[in-house]
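Journal club side-thread
Mid-discussion, someone asked how the predicted structure for our own chain would compare to the paper's figures. Pasting it here so we can look after the session.
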Amino acid sequence: MKKCAEFIVYSLIIAFFSCCGTKSKEERSSSITTTPFELHESYRLIEQAEESPQLSIDISLTLVETGDKEADENISRALAWTLFESPVTEKSEKPLAEACGYYVERIKEEYHELLPSYIDTRESGVPEVWFNNYYLISSEASTGYKGYINYIIQWEEYTGGAHPMSNCTALNFNPANGEEIVLEDILKEGYEEPLISILEKSLAKQLNVEDIDAVKAKGYMYGDADMFVSNNFILEKERIVFIYNKYDLAPYSAGEIMINVNYDEIKKLMK
């Protein structure tokens, strides 16, 4: 009886670990872990002068891990380029940190090129505040439609002038392989025209106006501009959020525009 019981327990243990070992790559990558990456630095335009204008760089990123080495490397390399416009070598063990270092050095060099202009204009009445530059970058990650990773980046920078500039960039990754998801991956061929119509109606509804002509009357899509399908979007669990940054559809004063489209509204367009 004792041997029988031991055999049953042993069989259950084998069965349990066999099930765990046969999980698909997609199942193992259905959840993500995140860790913070921080960099906060400042530099004076004139190093030895306390009253000197300065450059501030504040970066607060969320690093993503899926549990799959190849997927994580693909995501890191994509983010290194999107965040810092810096390609990294395949041998790099920390591509984001490496790209961030290149970015910071590039920004510092560009900032110090302002020194002659600063010296020339100190007596001319140009506001010195214009030479106090800053760069802010932050990001967050979550899971959305079909377990895809939603990665959202917020940017803000001031490099002189009347006001700072800011924008939002969204990327969506397949956690199974780290590849970026584009609209063509989830929508059928020919989706553009019907989707534009849906976007126009959704924007009109958000603005509490009757139709797209009324939207344009409020200053949106000025000139010859028309609605377009933004390739800047978030694949949330219940909807797609299309992001239009300042000047994409409207003047700076309108700010960032987000148009929500529920998946139920585009059933016929989806693969």
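Post-session note: The CA atoms of residues 24 and 176 lie 9 Å apart.
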